[in-house]
Structures are given as C-alpha cells and as structure tokens.
Amino acid sequence: MRIRCLMLLSALTAIAALHSQPAEAGCGCAKPPPPAAVVRPAFASPGDTITLFPPDNRSGTYEVRIGDNYKTTTNAVWKRDLTDATYKWQVQVKAPQLRIGPTYIYVKGPGRDFFVSSNDFTMMQAPLTLQEVNGETLAKCYSAAVTANNIVLLPLDITAITDRMIFNGLGESFPLLFNATDVMIYNTQGFLMQLLTTPNAVGIWEIEDYGQPDSLALTYDRHEFNTYLDMHAHTGGYGLDPNDPAWHTDGTYHVDHNHLVLAIKGTVENQGPPAPGKTPAFDFSIVTALADTTAPTSNRTIVWSNACATSTAN
What we know:
The protein has helices at 2-18, 226-231, 307-313; strands at residues 39-40, 43-44, 49-52, 61-66, 71-75, 77-80, 87-94, 101-102, 105-108, 114-116, 122-123, 128-129, 135-142, 145-146, 152-157, 165-172, 176-177, 183-187, 192-195, 205-208, 217-222, 240-241, 244-248, 259-264, 267-268, 277-278, 282-290, 300-303. By secondary structure, the protein is mainly β.
C-alpha cells in the first residue's frame, strides 16, 4: 500500500508540473490520411473493424480467415478510401476474440486471393476504458499485445472524456524503457494521431522514472474536446455523413479521437526488445486528472485476468 501511495503521489506531481503548460496537441480532423495498405489498421481489438482492400478491386463475396481459428464470409462494400478519397471495393469484418499478438489474414474472393502476413497485422487485447474522473484506474494481471517488430500496443477507449485531461500511465513490474522517439499514438481507423517529437507536442508530455521494477511513466496533457464535439453536432460542414460516418457532409474525412492505441517501441530492462506475442502479466496503472475543472476522486481496480491468481495458487 505504501508503494502504491508513493507512486500515485509521484504521478500527481508530474501532472501538476504540466498544469502551467498550454495544451496544444494536434486536434480535430486535420490529420494526414492513413497510408495505403492491404489491411487497415495494422492492429485490432475484438469488435474493431478490420478493412481489407482486394488488390484487384473486385466486388463479390469474400472468405476471410484471421489466424488459425476464425473464418467468416462477407460481401465487399463500395466505399471511399480514407487514404485518397476514391471509391473502392472494401472487405470489412469485425475483429474476433483471438489470442493477442502477430496474426495472419488470408482472403479468398472472386478474383485473386491475397494474404496478409503476421508481420503486418496484430490482434490486440480489449481496450482499457477510462472515465472523466480524478483518480487511478488499475488493471491487474494485464497483458499487452506485441507486434512482430517488438512494439507494445495499449488500446484505450476515452469516449467518456471531453474536458481537458492529463494522463499518467506506467506498467508495474514491467520494466519497459523508452524515450520520446519510441512513442506513437494511433486511432483504430489507422490515423497517426500524435508523435511526441513534433513541434505541437512541446510542453504536453513528460517521461519519468519512478524506479525499479516498473516501466518508465508517461504523462500526457490532452486538450478539451467539447469544441470538437460541437463542430460535429450540426448537419452541415463537419456533421457526419449519414451514409458513411467516416466522412463529413462537406466531403472531408472524420477522425475518431475516442478509440486510441498507444504504441511503444521500447526495451525491457536487462532483457532487450519485448518478444512478439504478448507481454508477461503486469499491473497497468493510469492516473487521470482534470486540468481545468474539478471532480471527485474515484479510484477503481479491474481484474483484467485471473491468470495471475491461478499461477500464484499453483
């Protein structure tokens, strides 16, 4: 308990240090489009939409195999591609519940079959849902997906957060070391949302070392999104296209800021890059603090998996 209190105090100290800095992170829908790829995004949690682009751009029925244990059949849809705004035949499926880590996809269709290597796609764990409160969310016995090129993926659902929020996260007993160049923030559409090394990220993040055996701690100041929501509430301009909510009614694409993926290409202390697949179990702690408003403190613990209790019992 004393260790947890010290960690929480350190996190809140880091948060307080950012309070004097203006939050000017990249915002809105003015993001570069996702790069062209046969599959987009390159990762998915259960229930996320996986979009596949047949190389021969043909309509029809497609059989999609994701890993060894999942198969489904679906019809291609004629939709605009976020990459270049042109209409293409796209094969969309919901990601199933599968073992996390690099996963291949094989697609059979009316034209040429195609294959997505496990080097190019990763099944993730479910997103950790955060609330608009001051306090700590602790996911116990948590494991994260690791891509084929050793990137740890941490999906987050922050739909409930619209006020300016400062986040402080770390992995307890998971000594992942990283610096600013190792951190990328994506969304589940495949947009690159933020790099810590860009000019608009100055003053909105901090990386600290709270000591062994934990990871480094990342603090991030996210500006308010009430203005963004207001801009999308009407029927013209930035209102969502009722036929395809990935686009606005003015023809520009819509960027989802609620479903994010923190991607860290770090090194596990005294071990090297994290092995592809999934991390060993650790406790994932995220402290949240409302920067411009007040709210009651609310701490919660989520038992992410029972594997740790089982291993302890054995």
